[in-house]
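DM from R.C. (forwarded with permission)

"hey, sorry to bug you on a friday — could you get me a structure for this? deadline for the figure draft is monday and I only need the backbone to look sensible"
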Amino acid sequence: MTDFYDQYDQEDAVSARPREAAPPPSAPFILYLEAEEQRAAMEGLACFVRDLLLPVYGREVTSSSPWCPRWWEHLEAVALLHGLWLSWQELTGPNGGLTGPAIWHRDYLGPVMQTLRDPSGPFAGCRPGGHRPKETPVVEEFPG
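My reply, with the result:
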């Protein structure tokens, strides 16, 4: 039987980094993708939100902690959730290290969920069973 620590270099035992850790794959940010690539990324993101994020971390929806059942119609939410999903893949995967999940919870999950669920956040005005499009601020044309 192979000892757990046999797969690690002695020098890396403290940080628990595998000997030949491959660099994480690069994934284009979802807002930069087009057509089929964006659709495929949205399907993966929807799976992450539906099957992992909300069942494990989705707290009750209240007026002080809103959630939109049509979250994908809020670009800010899509951007935040995509970043959360990418960081989850990197930090909880085989090369994430032993503290990867703790780092993900502290540095990514908490801040993103706090922003999303804030009463003045992207889901402001949305209610259980009801989506309300958010009005974006007016931007005047740059005079230059």
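R.C.: lifesaver. Confidence is low (pLDDT under 50) at residues 1-24.
me: no worries. DSSP finds three helices and no strands in the chain.
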